[in-house]
Write a structure and sequence with these properties.
This protein has 212 residues and is α/β, with parallel strands linked by helices. The protein has helices spanning 12-24, 31-46, 55-74, 95-107, 126-134, 149-154, 188-208; strands at 83-89, 111-117, 157-160, 174-177.
Length: 212
Amino acid sequence: MTESSYPVLPDERVATGVARLALRHQGRYSVETVQRLIADSYEQLAANAHVRTHLVVLAERFAAERLDALAHVENPVATGGRLRVLFVCSHNAGRSQMAAALLAHRAGEDVIVSSAGTHPSGAVDPHVVQALTEAGIAIDEVYPKPLTDEVVQAADIVVTMGCGDACPVVPGHRYLDWPVPAPDGAPIAVARSIRDAIDARITTLLYTLPSA
């Protein structure tokens, strides 16, 4: 990482994000640990992003998700013990974003939902956003995220969607594979049909979740 690619401290935006996350995890992680994770999150997102205007904000959000996952791995009881479901596809630009949004919408506070890609794209497919919006699901500032170790380790259920051998396997976790076609570049009608196919699988999944 170079200074030209990452807005290093004392950049006010980065410093503010570090302060927020360090306060949230006070007594658990040091300021230096939080700063390193935000920097790493920025670097990973910047590697594929088409637009970098909001990358500092997104890096903070990504780092927050990773820190929460890490805290859960270290002490599940202290973090509430809610069920965690992770959706993984290749680009995190279509199927896994749809599945995560649909499950989060229907399960509410009972489940912590996340998504990631083994080779994340630069942006979420606009027809995916449109199809979800038409279904009454507003998703703000969605962005493709890379798959990280702490998020995989924290998940109780990992749903793979066409990422093949690139999806990691962690012993003791429940794995499901959903052979749903990718909506990459497809017309809106196809994106809607994929949304509905995924939603049907979400319905089945909800019946098997103990607290949803």
